[in-house]
Amino acid sequence: MENLAVIWSYGIPFLLVLTVLVFVHELGHYWVARRAGVRVETFSIGFGREMIGWTDKAGTRWKIGWLPLGGYVKMFGDADAASTPDRETEATMSAEDRAVSFHHKPLRWRAAIVAAGPIANFLFAILVFAALFMTYGRPYTPPVVGSTIEGMPAEKAGLKAGDRIVAINSQAIDRFEEIQRVVLINLDQPLTVEYLRDGQRLSTRLVPTIVEETDRLGNKMRLARLGIRSSGQRDVETISSPTTALWRAVEETWLQTTGSLTAVGQMITGRRTADELSGPLGIAKVSGEAAQVSTGALVALAATLSISLGLINLFPIPMLDGGHLVFYLFEALRGRPLGPQAQEYGFRFGLVLVLSLMLFATWQDLVRLRVVQYLVSLVS
Question: Mind listing the pLDDT tens digit for each residue in 220-232?
């Protein structure tokens, strides 16, 4: 019974969120493909053997696979779910077949179809955030210093309780959460902090202190700290205007996107540890915890994960949408596609890289959740 409770608490929310996000992503590909006149053979949520499915009037097979960790849209002319060209079929295509084949569409249409998946994820996140802001409001903490920690950069720089931070490195600050975001992204880089004290605008320069902390999943992370505590005041920005809500949602999506890109860049350069990466198990745990907090928290998490899914798919790795777009860029520059052999090597490299990253992230999850430690204890 306990195992069933764990599956229900963590597995179901995770699968629900993942299914929605994959559907949105693949629907982006499907919708633009249909606009371009491409015949879509399969729209699958999950991989492996079909559990349930149906065929629509256009001949597309809609199905759910037994392994619900992803999905794909297979178009006419594709050899597999990764959209590699089917060379054998291509050689025997009639003029009518070429007219509905993905790989025979003009470059602009192929690029639009590929880009539509990640774009759909970003648009979904914007709409979800806008809906949340209009229903739950936009919670925030005013950027007012409640207190400073002795010996930390803020205290040494002379910041005091009651100071209202208005800008960091010329970036306007309206919420305490924005202070945390800017500091987190910049790590140990010097920051110019502008603040109001008794109506006077002052400025100071400080360097955050790097500390190592462990989160709820056991992740060890290098975090930047100024040593500022908030005032504890919690406000909610009530947004009734759809236009304002959409604008705030675009801002939130942009901030999360740029923050994620900065963090990835720091991992590549070694300034941030790759141990912070999470795989399916880690995401499942976070999804379960969010579901236990509230439906709104789970929906907000879905929006954040949608941004991550769209962003990851734009990375220039063969097998991912970004890798296809890189191939199309070379095609645009050369005036002709890359050779079949070059594309095949690219897809093989991409497959190895994607699988390696998945294995690494899953291993990190197993270590954080102490599964490895438990297994070792059984045989030692």
Answer: 667 788 888 887 7
